[in-house]
Specification:
Layout lengths: L2 H7 L33 E5 L4 H12 L3 E6 L3 H13 L4 E5 L5 H15 L4 E4 L15 H22 L8 E5 L3 H4 L5 H21 L5 E5 L8 H4 L4 H5 L13 H12 L10 E2 L10
Parallel strand pairs: 1-2, 1-4, 2-3, 4-5, 5-6, 6-7
Organism: Sphingomonas floccifaciens
InterPro entries: NAD(P)-bd_dom_sf, Sc_DH/Rdtase_CS, SDR_fam
Protein name: SDR family oxidoreductase
Length: 286
């Protein structure tokens, strides 16, 4: 069975992950400043790297000198666009179609990255999905399992596959969410996985710090990516998306990517087990 067939079998009933090409206005992924070599000679793998925050991180990592492999579920056109973006920065890019909910696929994705680039230095666990439900009784067993498979089980799978290749100085950056701190009444399963991710980040940091591998996380607020339009948000909610933040607007992916860069490079060499909060000014207990 091919990777395409494997992933097609595991797709949720909704329209996720969703095509960035179909969004209007287009999310802003472009790096905002010249590179300074902070990831020169490094190799990174980014799950959910075809669009949204993942694409912005891939573009910024490439600008800072890294070769980048992205893992994506279905949107081959978006993935190809992201690889072109990486290559336009003079770095090598690789798109790998895989479902992070499958341990076998995660192992395959990591091996493909190492085979192509010869090493692995940075793992970004960014892939995620959400399915709004106002009544907890509407969350099916299949949806509950699928959300946890993608959002937290996938992080376990990716770390397990990547760990033999990581070494002293390597970094793992996980994507959690402001919903972990605030709660979200219509995202019960999603916000629960984000709480698990924060606990996973702190615990994994304690587990790996002796090996010189730092583990941190980023907790974005409302960011304009395919996740919400294709994840079940109503047109009414999209009209006011992000307006409840102190800044009164949603964030853009390129406003979040620098947090992922900081945690991946030596600028954050004395940080592990921490969470950064690009969320439009919302105060949370971090």
């Amino acid at each position: 069975m091919t990777a395409a067939q494997d992933t097609a079998e595991m797709v949720h009933e909704d329209a996720l992950p969703g095509h960035e090409r179909q969004l209007e206005p287009k999310p802003e992924w472009q790096p905002r400043y010249p590179g300074s070599g902070r990831l020169a000679g490094k190799v990174a793998i980014i799950t959910g790297g075809d669009s949204g925050i993942g694409r912005a991180v891939a573009a910024l990592y490439a600008r800072e000198g890294a070769d980048v492999a992205i893992v994506y579920l279905l949107e081959s056109d978006d993935a190809e666009d992201t690889v072109r973006i990486i290559e336009s920065e003079g770095r090598r890019g690789l798109a790998i179609r895989a479902d992070v909910g499958s341990r076998k696929m995660c192992e395959r994705a990591v091996q493909q990255t190492v085979d192509a680039f010869g090493r692995l230095d940075v793992l970004v666990n960014n892939a995620g999905e959400q399915h709004p439900d106002e009544d907890i009784r509407d969350i099916t067993e299949e949806q509950l399992l699928r959300t946890f498979q993608t959002n937290i089980f996938g992080m376990f799978h990716m770390v397990q596959a990547a760990l033999p290749h990581l070494k002293d100085g390597s970094a793992i950056v996980n994507c959690t969410s402001v919903t972990m701190y605030q709660g979200a009444k219509d995202l019960l399963d999603y916000s629960s996985t984000k709480g698990a991710i924060t606990a996973f980040t702190r615990s994994l940091s304690e587990n790996l710090i002796g090996k010189g591998i730092r583990v941190n996380a980023v907790a974005p607020g409302p960011i304009w990516t395919p996740l919400n339009p294709f994840g079940g948000a109503t047109p009414e909610k999209l009209k006011t998306f992000g307006q409840n933040t102190p800044m009164g607007r949603p964030g853009q992916p390129n406003e979040v990517a620098p947090a992922f860069l900081f945690l991946a490079c030596q600028d954050s060499s004395y940080m592990s087990g921490q969470v950064l909060h690009p969320n439009g000014g919302t105060i949370v207990n971090g």
